[in-house]
């Protein structure tokens, strides 16, 4: 009887402590119930091979969807958003692709409802919004860009290194490509700040180097632009990354061709002066 009483009191104390803990502390206590090391490895493998092994990606999405159906772990739900984003990128039908990116955003919102500071949820929502902006036209893009900026700035404030400084990289590209004030809020000065920081944090990142090369060329720094473009073109790219990186290699090639042309023109000019 005494043993039962002690057990009852012990359980009561545990329940009381859990109920009186702050929500953030409770989340920390149970943050690994879905994202175990084994489960993380499974997610990372699907994310890495998404472009060359679609069945694995779809199987992992279905598995994680079931795993997070009744979950209160924002990080785990945000990982589902990440995989859904990758699935959407593989879709060739534009209408279906838009639906899939919208689904990725909705899943990220589930994570953010549980924790508005979840870096994964913030980042992958912003990423999906960016792709959605590309597919839905100028008016929709203008409506989405400002909220994207806010999400990415929040990611930087929380963890600027997440996804190879992905928020710095994305903001740098956005600021570079957008028109300046008063048409929009583009700014090469801001773009340089973010891409320089992304490069400082992850100097081997191919995407950052491609974006940086493009921006530096537009800023008249052709030698530096050529240096970064050549790095991208010489980079060893795994088969798993080839599809995604094709776009960035193309950017680097364009920059390189323009810097080579400039050098040839300069050489021809000097020869003609002799």
What does this structure look like?
The chain is mainly alpha-helical. It has 2 domains: 119 residues, Alpha Horseshoe (Serine Threonine Protein Phosphatase 5, Tetratricopeptide repeat), CATH 1.25.40; 114 residues, Tetratricopeptide repeat domain (Serine Threonine Protein Phosphatase 5, Tetratricopeptide repeat, Alpha Horseshoe). The protein is 81% helix and 0% strand. Helix 4 runs antiparallel to helix 5, helix 9 packs antiparallel against helix 10 and helix 11 packs antiparallel against helix 12.
Stretches where pLDDT falls below 50 for ≥5 residues?
A: 1-31, 262-274
How far apart lie the N and C ends?
107 Å
Approximate shape: globular
The top level CATH class name of the largest domain: Mainly Alpha
The CATH superfamily of the largest domain turns out to be Tetratricopeptide repeat domain
- Please identify the structural class as seen in this structure: mainly alpha
Q: What is the radius of gyration? A: 23 Å
Amount of beta strand: under 5%
CATH architectural arrangement of the largest domain: Alpha Horseshoe
Which whole number gives the mean pLDDT?
85
* Helix fraction bin: over 70%
Secondary-structure element series: HHHHHHHHHHHHH
| Number of continuous helical runs | 13
Q: Give the total of domains.
A: 2
What is the fold-level CATH name, i.e. the topology of the largest domain? Serine Threonine Protein Phosphatase 5, Tetratricopeptide repeat
